[in-house]
Each structure stands twice: as structure tokens, then as C-alpha cells.
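Dear colleague,

Thank you for sharing your sequence with our group. We've completed the structure prediction you requested, and as agreed, I am returning the results in plain text so they can be pasted directly into your records. Please verify that the sequence below matches your submission; if there's any discrepancy, let me know and we will rerun it promptly.
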Amino acid sequence: MPLEAFIRRMPKVELHVHLEGSIRPQTLLTLAQRNNVAIPAHSVAELRDWYQFTDFAHFIEIYMAICNCLRTPDDFELIATEFLRGQAQQNIQYSEVIFTPYTHHEHVSMDEQLAAINRARAWAETNLGVRMALAPDISRQRRPIDHSLIVADWALANRDNGIIALGLGGPEIDNPPELFREAFDRIHAAGLPSLPHAGETVGPASIWGALNALHAVRIGHGVRCLEDPQLVAYLREKQIPLDVSPTSNVCLGVASSLAEHPLPQLIAEGLFVTINSDDPPMFGTTLTDEYLHIAQTFDFGLSLIKRLVVNGIRASLLPEDARRSLENQFQAQFTQLQNALKL
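Please find the predicted C-alpha cells below.
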């Protein structure tokens, strides 16, 4: 019980969470209704039933239906504000948040999306004391892929406007990283970090592609690296962070159950692991729940839980001085909380 209380109250960071995938169920119903978008659910209970994914393709189908409910700048400000309230309630003090701007551009321009999200970001920093940075991503499945250059140029133009990186998301099957080399060469030359998803539904080849073709500084998911000992050795040597989302992996069939999740092996191999929620309402989780579940399932103790939190700080794209300052603040809060709970 003391460890559970510690996890609930401890300061946290989150590096892999999708804004569109964080929409609260009741808010999604409201957006669908006010924007006249038909979805096959009319209550929170029906949404939970809808969120029973048969495979990754089915998940993407539902995810795109959710994205289709966002039609105005106010919609983006609303979901970002609610997301940040939820982060504050979990004491998640800093988040690096993914969203897919080109998916929505026919209804809301990418500039309008960013301005709306930034209004929420500024409000939350002033009123809630939580911070957010943005890592827009390119959608793998959208064709033709010329849009990737549009998104890359837009991200570069807004790197002083809340954007800290560019990602690549969507189905890995038949969409290898190498297809998007030109866009990521462009941002790499300009010094903008690359945060692609890889090694989730495709194995080591996808991760190697993200590293070699996309200049990845962090890997979204990456759990299938364990299929290639040479890749594991490389990731360990370079200490390239893996943003691991255990419940997401279970819900999408990457792991058969939480008990069978490779998280303990990733840690035992000396890999740089962070813990994340990915699309929390869609997977029935929160970042706090992720820590509670892994502590219980794998019998992780206080020291390892704290190390995973600190990994999140160290893997973040905050400036070095800001990372050091945040880590010092967290260590002080850990000590205060341990003393209060007599841990």
C-alpha cells in the first residue's frame, strides 16, 4: 500500500502519448454530436465496447474515426485543455505529446491546430503548473507520401512555437521507415530530433530502419528489438531510449498479456526504458495505472520505479540544464514523499 500511494502521488513525466488518442470518452461523444459525425457508439459504455481491438488495423480504423470528430480549432483547444488537466491530476509535470496534423488539415489548418493547442499549453502552464511540448508525426499510411515533406517543413517552421521533434506513426506493415527518408533527412540537417514509432507490429528491421534512415534519437515502442541480439547490443551501447507502453502492447496483441510483456527482459538487458500510456482512454489506462500495473505484475520495487521515472526526464528533449533542474526537483519530491509515507 505505501508503494501504491507513492506511485499515485509521485511526480512523473510522459514522453509517448497521442493527443487524439487521449480524448475523454464523454468528450468524444460531445464532439461527434456537435460536429454531426456518426460513430457507432452513443454512450461511454458503448465506447468501451467499441474499443475492443481485434488487431492493429482495427485500432487504426477506430483511431481515424476519432480523428474525424475534430472539426474546429475550439475542438483542439478543448481536447488539449482536458488532456493537460488529466496530466496535472496525475502529477505528470512534463509531457511530450504526439499529434498528427495532416490528418485534420482539410477541416482545420495545421497552423490553426497548433495555435489552439498552444492556447491550452500556455493556460496549463500558468494555471496548473504543468508543461507540454509537441512532437507532430507523419502518417505512414497516407498516400502519396509527399505530405511528409509538407509536415517536415511545417514542423521546422514552428520549432520555436512549441514543436520539439518530428515523429512517424501508423501501420508499420508495408510502410517501412526508408520510404520517409527524405523528410527526416531534411529535419536532421536542420537539427530537429526524430521520434519515430518502430518495432511494435514489425520486428527489428523496422527499428534498424528508424535508426539508419530516420536518424531516430528515441524509439516509440521498440519492444521487438529483443528478436535481434545485435540490435539489442547496439541500443544498449548507444543508450537509445525506448518509449514502452505496456497496456497498449497488450491491447494491440504485441504481448499476449501483461505478465508476458517483455518489459522485465528489456530492463535486464540494460536497455534505456521509459514508461508511457500511448492512447490512455482507448486502452483503459493512465500513466499512473501503467506504473501501478508493472509494479504489481513484475514485483518492481521503489528504487526501480523511481529509476524509470528519472529515465523519462533524461530521455526527454528538454535542454540539458532544464533536465538537470527537473531531475533535482523530482529527487527532492521523492524524498519528501518517502518520508511522509515512511518508505
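Summary note from our side: Residues 2-26+74-341 form a domain with the TIM Barrel fold (CATH 3.20.20.140).

Kind regards,
the structure core
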